[in-house]
Amino acid sequence: MTWEENLAAAREYCKDHHTLAAPRTATALDKPVGQWLSNQRRLGVLDERADRVEALAGIDPDWNPSWPLDWQRHYAAVADCLDGGAQLGDPLPRVTCTGSMSAGGWSASASTSCGRA
């Protein structure tokens, strides 16, 4: 697969999930986009490819966050709920927004750990 094909799959994944924090098992356009993104994040892979880093950042500025990808996945799911009309206090623990991810539980936990509950 070419870089452009993989980038198109990343674009499609982000369109559907509002993040490039894809799990390794994620697919888009019949391509293993999760594994591909994981490979791009490995230290040194894109060191001399600023054009590729910019292309990924153009799709999702947080494609390679310094914080855990799991956190980013949950954040994107909660943001998706809010974009859909939910209010910050709405998601309850065990409420899912995407697949089986407990965005509500994550939101409650994140609020508590930040002292906002």
How does this structure look, described?
It is globular, with a radius of gyration of 15 Å. It starts with a helix and ends with a helix. By secondary structure, the protein is mostly helical. Helix 1 (3-17) packs across helix 2 (33-41) and helix 4 (69-83) packs across helix 5 (103-113). The chain has helices at 3-17, 33-41, 50-59, 69-83, 103-113.
Which secondary structure elements does this structure contain, and how are they paired or packed?
Blueprint: H1 3-17, H2 33-41, H3 50-59, H4 69-83, H5 103-113
Estimated helix fraction: 40-55%
Structural class: mainly alpha
Give the N-to-C terminal Cα separation: 47 Å
Q: What is the molecular shape?
A: globular
Q: Tell me about the largest β-sheet.
A: none
Radius of gyration in whole Å, from Cα? 15 Å
Question: Which features characterize this protein?
Answer:
mainly alpha; 117 residues; single chain
What is the compact description of this entry?
The protein has 117 residues and is an all-alpha fold. It is 51% helix and 0% strand.
